[in-house]
Amino acid sequence: MKFNENEKLSIYNGLASTAATNMVNGYIPLFAIGVLGATNHQIGLIVSLPSIIGMLALIPGAIWLNRVYSKKNFAVISTLLTRLLFSLILFVPFLGSPYAAWALVILIALLNFPGALSGLSWQSMIGDLVPEKRRGEFFSSRNRYNTIAAMAVTFGTGVFLQQFDKDNAFPYQVLFIAAFLFAVFEIYFLFKHKEPERLKNEKVTEEKSKKLSLAVYKHKPFLAFVISALLFGFSAQMAWSLFSIYQIKEANATALWLSLFSVTNQLAQIISIKWWANAADRRGNSFVLFIAAAGMATAPALTMLSTNLVYLTLINLWIGLFVSGTNLLLFNQLLKASPETDRTNYIANYTFLLSIVGFIAPQMGVLLLNGLGMNAAMNLIALFRMIAAFSFLFVALKFERKVIAESI
After folding, report:
1. CB of 346 within 8 A of CB of 212?
2. How far apart are CA 370 and CA 213, in angstroms?
């Protein structure tokens, strides 16, 4: 596939963003537990609080975004603010116990306010810049390049952290500085995108700028997508903090092992992402999304079968085959279900609801862990995920029946 200038810039932007985030994000739980002495409750809050803060940002964010002439400039400013707040984590270890862990919780939560605006504006901008007929192939290519970068950065970071004691804050502080430098390139390539003149000069009416209402749910394909995506999102995010707690506290995974988990997961994503894009073109996005989601549903139950680190590495290889499909197809389905004329409001409504789910679900996961134990909690979450995956099959049968019948 030949890329135009905007698509090339989007790929460069994605690579820089991937380096900036994967250098530190995957190791935040290890940093919180090993260096700051965070509790299970604080780990749960690190996962869940950003969602509720992001939710608070979405309503004013959608209004602001519809009023601005340039979605690109909006994305640049919000991304810059997000990275600046993230860099402040560099100073958290100096606060000492017990304040440092709580400071990390608060910072991770607060940075998601501009982070939510950044994600909303980028999704809306890229939806305008990439035509629907090119999205499947372009995003599969972009995701593949990003995953290769994530794999290299994650493994290199794991090897680097392995050279230090797990309670040493210094290597993490080095990583926060390096991540910010990559973020500078991320913002530069984002700024270089070229918007069509109509997006910069077209006058947005006051009526449209205030439009963030329940009317979007009258569009049946969007409503069906939202229900399915939220069901699966809830069941998926229930296990997020549990995976980290299990790997670090019960399997005693070090930074190097955590990097191997991520690298094998990302390797599987690289191998499989093109297949998912082609399968969606042949069988319909929702139907193939059901298969990907069902595969992800097996992750919690399979993880609980052993604390052997080699086994957990292989499980992450298996899970990665389905993560790539789920991430790609969920985003494609969101764009497909959102009418082009008012896409920002559709995305904002979906992200708003997803933020509520993102706050509640990890807390529910920790409650299940404290009440039932790790094994029962993870197996129950696996069941919830599988039930939610079947909702995508229902959508496929209802809205894409003709496409499926023609392709078989």
Report:
1. no
2. 38
Cis before residue 98, ω within 30 degrees of 0?
A: yes
Pick 347 or 173 by higher pLDDT.
173
- The mean per-residue pLDDT over the stretch 358-380 comes to 90
Closest CA relative to residue 153, chosen from 263, 34, 37: 263
207/307 Cα distance (integer angstroms): 56
CA angle 55, 59, 64 (to 5 degrees): 130
207 pLDDT above the threshold of 50: no
DSSP string for 21-64? HHTTGGGHHHIIIIIT---HHHHHHHHHHHHHHHHHHHHHHHHH
Question: What does the pLDDT read at residue 375?
Answer: 93
Longest dimension (CA), the chain: 63
Distance (Å, whole) CA 297 – CA 291: 10
Q: Is a pLDDT exceeding 90 seen at residue 25?
A: no
Question: Of 120, 161, 192, 142, which Cα lies nearest the Cα of 11?
Answer: 142
Per-residue DSSP letter, 167? T
144/204 Cα distance (integer angstroms) = 36
- Cα(213)–Cα(187) distance, rounded to whole angstroms? 31
The tokens for 307 are 């604390």
pTM score, two decimals? 0.66
What is the structure's pLDDT at 403? 45
Two structure tokens written together for 73: 């400039």
**Residue 157: φ, ψ to 5°:** -65, -40
CA 113/CA 123 separation, integer angstroms:
16
CA 210 to chain centre: 27
**pLDDT band with cut points at 50, 70 and 90 for residue 384:** very high
Distance of CA 85 to the CA centre of its chain: 19
pLDDT-above-90 percentage for the chain: 28
Contact at 8 Å (CB) between 68 and 265? Answer: no
DSSP string, 338-350: S-GGGHHHHHHHH
Q: How confident is the model at residue 254 (pLDDT cuts 50, 70, 90)?
A: confident
Helix axes 71-87, 112-129, angle to 10 degrees: 150
Is the pLDDT at 215 greater than 80? The verdict is no
Rounded Cα gap, residues 62 and 71, in angstroms: 11
How does DSSP classify residue 304? T
Q: State how far the Cα of 311 lies from the Cα of 260, in Å rounded to an integer.
A: 11
